[in-house]
Amino acid sequence: MQDIRDLTSVLRSNTPIVVIETYEEYRVVELLKRIANVLYQPVFTWSITQGLTRVDRPMAGQKFNSEPTDLLGQIKSTSQQGIYVLCDFHPFVIDAPKNVRLLKEIALEYETLQHTLVLVSHAFEIPPEIKRYCAYFQLTLPSTVQLQNLIYLEVDKIRNQGMPLLVDDAAVTKLAENLRGVTLDDARRLVRKAIVDDGAITSSDIDAINKAKFQLLDLNGVLQFEYDTSDFSQVAGLHNLKKWLKQRSPIADVKRDTGIANTNDVPKVLDAPKGILLLGVQGSGKSLAAKAVAGVWQRPLLRLDMAALYNKYIGETEKNLRNALDLADMMSPCVLWIDEIEKGLSGGSSDEGTSTRILGTLLTWMAERKSEVFVVATANDIQALPPELMRKGRMDETFFVDLPDEAIRKAIFLIHCQRRGIDVTSLDLAQLAARSQGFSGAEIEQAVIAAMYTARSVERGVDQMLLLEELSKTRPLSVVMSDKINALRQWAAGRTVNAHE
User: Fold this and answer.
1) Of 243, 219, 370, nearest to 296 (Cα)?
2) Whole-angstrom Cα distance, residue 183 to residue 79?
3) What is the pLDDT of residue 258?
4) Residue 354's closest CA among 305, 390, 320?
5) Residue 368: is it exposed, middle or buried by C-beta count within 10 angstroms (0-12/13-18/19+)?
């Protein structure tokens, strides 16, 4: 109903040309057929294969031009007012001055002829000659409730065919949330595939839906989809961060955990969390924590590669960022991981102001976005970060991820040994934790991997001695770059929240 009201208003505003970028061509035609009954105007559709046809009611015995230039000439010369839907007309205005001129003449004569052209394509680059005569219209995307109803409708169709189907209602809610941003037709295809793949709708379908949605939206270039979103069971320590995230679980989780019947009541009290900054020593687990946020909240994780943003042509870098942020909005609700954010914002004076413009674009988006995109930014060098990014309101909190203490190191050894099939019952994890003082989580993992290679070369299993030998061979980053790490710790004390404590 909202689309009908809005599109009717556009058509009544005496705009000669309406541009609609969508894949739902049939939906546009159906909307216009319903509107035609209100405006008392005929509706015609045109395509290069079918020519021009009246669709609001049959017209027998008439044949219209199928060639673009002839079509525009036909519309311009007829005295019958109407709405003309031109499907996939975008190729016929590129390097086609005659067609562009005909479009302009039809627009200029609108007051006399009352011809409204509706240009429907997946994308349409409007020539500057006619831009001022055009209005853009965007179809609304289905809401979460509409998507839930769609899922249950597809479930009923399958069951009516005699096929048993397992349906998890909590998974349906999650799937509906993650399908936001796609059209009803696309959502229907994705749901059908999820059902056919395993004969069920369960939480295991969420990752597959997110992956398919990502591919559907064609998110290429600087924005990447992370498929292996880890669970927090794979992250040792970070107790404060885990607690903070649990308190700010998405609204759907609040409904489940608190029993709130209507999630619309939640935003009236709680603003959606915006994001966090993870500052810390390299290898301390910041990237793993970013993946874990998406895994725990069961939301798709997008990684923004700041280094890939830059383009040698002026203005292209900022355009790349805007496109990436727009696509993140389309994937909402999601987690946007900006890894090593300082590398994209610290270009200095040698980059002709590009880094400054990038910062401005990013800050504006962070302040004004309405979508449920939770930002997780990681950084190693606090001195390289602009102060504008650090203030409250841009990010909800700044966490400092320090080197793990002895208890956390013990847990890290346990995780990596169990993951690789090493018998931990024969190991003294307390001794390993004590001997790895100053090691980061990444350095402990590499020590375990190195011990496995050594064990294979001597044809024996990984034991305590091999692990201790690898630890003794390693000079951790805390020793090699002790001055820089100590300075980082001193800055973080009193300015950030310790993620581990």
Assistant:
1) 243
2) 37
3) 45
4) 320
5) exposed
The two structure tokens encoding residue 372: 């449920």
pLDDT digits (tens, 9 = 90+) for 424-444: 999 999 999 999 999 988 899
Query: Can you say whether residue 139 is alpha, beta or left, with left for phi > 0 and alpha for psi between -120 and 50 degrees?
Result: beta
Residue 80, phi-psi category: left (phi > 0), alpha (psi -120 to 50), beta (remainder): beta
Tokens read off for 250:
């998405």
User: Does 329 have pLDDT greater than 90?
Assistant: no
Which residues, in sequence order, are CB contacts of 409 under 8 Å at separation 6+?
Answer: 432, 433, 436, 439, 444
Q: 448 and 420 in contact (C-beta within 8 Å)?
A: yes
Q: Which residue has the tokens 């895994």?
A: 295
Q: Say what the pLDDT of residue 428 is.
A: 94
Q: What is the pLDDT of residue 270?
A: 67
- The label of the residue with tokens 């956390």 reads 408
Cβ contact 321:361 at 8 Å: yes
E strands in 70-226? 82-87, 115-121, 134-137, 166-167, 200-201, 223-226
